[in-house]
Amino acid sequence: MTGRFHGRRAIVTGASRGIGAAVARRLAAEGADVALVARTVEPAEALPGSLLETARQVEAHGRRAVLVVADLSDEADRARVVPEAVEGLGGGVDVLVNNAAAAIYEPLLQMSTKRRRILFELNLHAPSDLARDAAPAMVDRGEGWIVNVSSGAARSWAGPPYELGHLGSTIATYGASKAALNRITNGLAAELHGTGVRVNAVEPRAAVLSEGADALVGDALGADQVEPMEAMVEATVALCRCDEEVTGLQAVSLELLEEWGLEVHDLDGLPPGGAAPRESRDLAAER
Questions:
Q1: So what's the pLDDT on residue 223?
Q2: I want to staple 102 with a disulfide (CB 3.0 to 4.6 A). Which of 25, 122, 166, 186 is the partner?
Q3: Among the ranges given (93-107, 177-191, 224-238), the one the predictor scored with the smallest mean pLDDT
Q4: Has 162 been annotated as catalytic?
Q5: pTM for the predicted model, two decimal places
Q6: Cβ neighbours of residue 187 closer than 8 Å, sequence gap 6 or more
Q7: Which CATH number goes with the domain that contains 37?
Q8: Is residue 284 part of a domain?
Q9: What is the extent of the structural domain holding 45?
Q10: pLDDT of residue 287
Q11: Pick the catalytic residue: 174, 198, 203, 231?
């Protein structure tokens, strides 16, 4: 499997840690050069992971890592992302993974307008703008893949009575921003259908305990409520190389893997309990 992205160029947002860093590492393991986008090169606080660390993981696979430091909540700042990525990567991007997001959990009646705007700027407007900026070159080449990382919080609660979960109604505004992202994904897929550009969304079926999420909700979740990072990454990269007619999906990670019969590889693209196939090792050696 390693090598299926050989010669491809990708942008991954929110790439300093968590799902974004893991997806960037996996894409590089399979041959892609990757533009890594985050707000800072090194975290201001004592948080694990950094853009530099992700770049080292990409380069460990012999691939090019381009650092794009931008505040995606700022319209002018995010306008630099695709042009800087294209310049650094030496051409138009084939893959865009919109992973960066704001997760602000607060009761609806207490949330300020400013905070609500931040949620929609990062979770809706930023991925929409990056897709708008990246798509024309994909259309010109006749193929491309845009994957938006969504959330189960986008689904409305049934009720009354309402079973809100451990975060209660504090997750509603975040969920609304992800619901809007799902609708934009569907609309853009329809708009670009027939051009060779696929646009899909994927959400974890359970919590993916990245570094930041673990700090927020780790103690509140049982083992059956946690999804391996590798599974979420497997589903995401599968949508980065899907067939032309696979577009407009709002996929759930573990369900997609089961439906497509996909084996979960590690973040370096290796199958469970084994080395890469001979052909994959040869491709890596050529690079």
A1: 55
A2: 122
A3: 224-238
A4: no
A5: 0.90
A6: none
A7: 3.40.50.720
A8: no
A9: 9-270
A10: 28
A11: 174
What is the rounded CA–CA span in Å between residue 36 and residue 27?
Answer: 12
Neighbour tally for 252: CB within 10 Å:
19
Q: How many structural domains are present in the chain?
A: 1
Residues 148-200: tens digit of each pLDDT: 999 999 999 999 998 888 888 999 999 999 999 999 999 999 999 999 999 99
DSSP string, 218-229: GGG--GGGEE-H
Peptide bond before residue 272 is cis, with ω within 30 degrees of 0 = no
Q: Does residue 195 sit within a domain?
A: yes
Instruction: Specify burial of residue 169 (Cβ count, 10 A radius: 0-12, 13-18, 19+).
Output: middle
- 78 domain-assigned: yes
Tell me how far apart the 2 most distant CA atoms of the chain are, in Å. 60
Tokens of 74: 């700022």
Reported as a single tens digit per residue, the pLDDT across 3-17 is 899 999 999 999 999
Note whether residue 281 is domain-resident: no
Could you please report the per-residue DSSP string of 22-64?
HHHHHHHHTT-EEEEEES-SS-SSS-S--HHHHHHHHHTTT--
